[in-house]
Amino acid sequence: MTAVLTVAVVLAAVGLSAGVGPLVVGAILRRVEKGEETPGLLRGGMWIGVLERVAVTGAILAGAPEAVAIVIAIKGLGRYPELRHEAGAQAGRAAERFIVGTLASFIWAALWGFTGLWALGMLA
To answer: Measured between alpha carbons, how far is 35 from 101 in angstroms, rounded to an integer?
Structure first.
C-alpha cells in the first residue's frame, strides 16, 4: 500500500467524522429535544464535538483506543463545572444534552475510525 493511499484513507475518515458529525449529532440532539431551544446552554459544543471526533477517530486509526478515555476525561472535567452550575430543570436538560451529544459524537467518530481501519486493511 502506498503512503498516498494511507494518507487519503486517514484524511477521508477523519474528515467525514469531523465534517459530517455536526450534522448527524445535531439532528440527534434536535430529535431528543423535540424542538426545544435552550439558548446559551453548553455553548461551544459544536467546536468541542468536532475536536473530540477528530481525536477519537485519530486514536482508533493510530491504534491507540485507550486515548479515547483521555478525550472522555477532558470533556467531562471541562463541562462538569458548567453542568453543576445549572439549576433545576435546566440542569437536567443540560446533562441530558451533554450525555446524548457525547455518545452520538463518539459513536459517529468510532464508526469512521473503524471504517478507516477496514479500508486500510483492504488496501494492504
So the answer is: 15
Q: What is the C-alpha to C-alpha distance for residues 112 and 15, in angstroms, rounded to an integer? A: 9
At residue 119 the predicted structure's pLDDT band, cuts being 50, 70 and 90, is: very high
pTM of the shown model: 0.77
CA angle (110 as vertex; 104, 115 as ends), nearest 5: 130
User: What cell was used for 18?
Assistant: 469531523
Degrees to nearest 5, angle at CA 108 with 103 and 111: 125
Q: How far apart are CA 25 and CA 20, in angstroms?
A: 9
Digit-coded pLDDT (tens) for 66-98: 999 999 999 888 877 777 776 666 677 778 888
